[in-house]
Amino acid sequence: WYDRRNIGEFRTIVDVNFVGAMGPPGGGRNPVTLRLLRHFHYLAFTELENSSKLCIFGTILKSWLVRTQGLQNMQDAMVTSTLSLYTTILQELLPTPAKTHYTFNLRDLSKVFQGVLMADPERMEKEEQVLRLWYHECCRVFQDRLVNDADRNWFDKLLRSKIRTDFNKNSDSVLGEGAIIFGDFLDPTLDIRPYIQINDMEKLSRVLDQYLEEYNNSSTKPMKLVLFLDAICHVCRISRVIRQPLGNALLLGMGGSGRQSLTRLATHIAEFVCFQIELSKNYGPNEWREDIKQLMFKAGVYNRETVFLLSDTQIKSESFLEDMNNILNSGDVPNIYKPDELDQIYNAMKGIVTELGLPSTKSNLFSAYVKTVRSNLHSVITMSPIGEVFRARIRQFPALVNCCTIDWFSAWPDSALQ
């Protein structure tokens, strides 16, 4: 390896193996030259067969349906219909320059079942209740990512056709009229909040107004918000995302449309801590790294549920997004901790590792720390979809797309904008 400091000298690197993980070209991934690939041995992993997906997700759903009141016969239809829906979306909703984030993978498929499992199965008495829950979770995972009414209407018709053909139900009678909303915050007095369908919109509006009043009374920066229907729906969407393990959100919309304010309200509802960096003239990569380190410390060492709110206007350097990409992928930023901070992490994780019956090695201790960080830290990133900058960032940092993406601005009705 040529040494640029000592001109004319070469360094020999020994005992190093290179491993690369790649996907096929497309969706923001560019072809890699054969001059590089010739040095590697290929291991190709093909897409899972439908039979394997049926077995995996069928087993997961079965563990939930056996606790319902005689609704176990819905297992095959729900899994088959969801897989068929997923396959159709992969074929029809392809990424384009205007729809860069139309990239779907098995994570999205698993999030549908993860959302269904959030509800209490013992409360399910009729097939219609399960179908409304399934419809809601499919909309939250797939429809929220769509950027225009044409795509959203196409997806809604597809879901309704699945209900008619796969479940032999009338979609209009099952879904009814109006928005289908699920949440766990309707009764703040309960210790264990059930994830249920919210039918009383007036009560939901009153409860959110109470939460907003509580936030304003306890905050040094009160928010004067008007919670109309679409704003209420967005609060419910954000609340659903951050209550899930490894739940992260990417909010796409214009500045001033309420993305940050509603995120703070949803964080207050969940009783989490909302953290946001404070930009200054001298704020740079060192200050950013220090903030990120303290944030992960709170989530991992002190075990605090935290929401990290980051706006695209706060990204002074693309290295900020590189660190965010690492946090979303692995829950860690390489080489960010000093030796004394690592010792503090190891001491804090000894109890957890001992309870798991694992030896207290440094690798096990740090692995337990990273898992705790990923479980407690929820990232909410707000971006504007206008311009080439957004598309370049999506291509360069694919972990952003793996967040639950909510297209924000196009969901506002004209009356609300006026």
UniProtKB/TrEMBL annotation:
One of its GO terms (biological process) is microtubule-based movement. Belongs to the dynein heavy chain family. Residues 79-174 form the Dynein heavy chain 3 AAA+ lid domain. This is Dynein heavy chain. Its main location: cytoplasm. The keyword Acetylation does not apply. The keyword Repeat does not apply. It is found in: Cytoplasm, Cytoskeleton, Cilium axoneme. Pfam families: AAA_7 (PF12775), AAA_8 (PF12780), AAA_lid_1 (PF17857). InterPro entries: DHC (IPR026983), DNAH3_AAA_lid_1 (IPR041589), Dynein_heavy_chain_D4_dom (IPR024317), P-loop_NTPase (IPR027417). The lineage of its organism: Eukaryota, Metazoa, Ecdysozoa, Arthropoda, Hexapoda. Signal peptide: none annotated. Keywords: ATP-binding, Cell projection, Cilium, Coiled coil, Cytoplasm, Cytoskeleton, Dynein, Microtubule, Motor protein, Nucleotide-binding. GO terms for molecular function: ATP binding; dynein intermediate chain binding; dynein light intermediate chain binding. It comes from Diploptera punctata. Residues 223-418 form the Dynein heavy chain AAA module D4 domain. One of its GO terms (cellular component) is dynein complex.
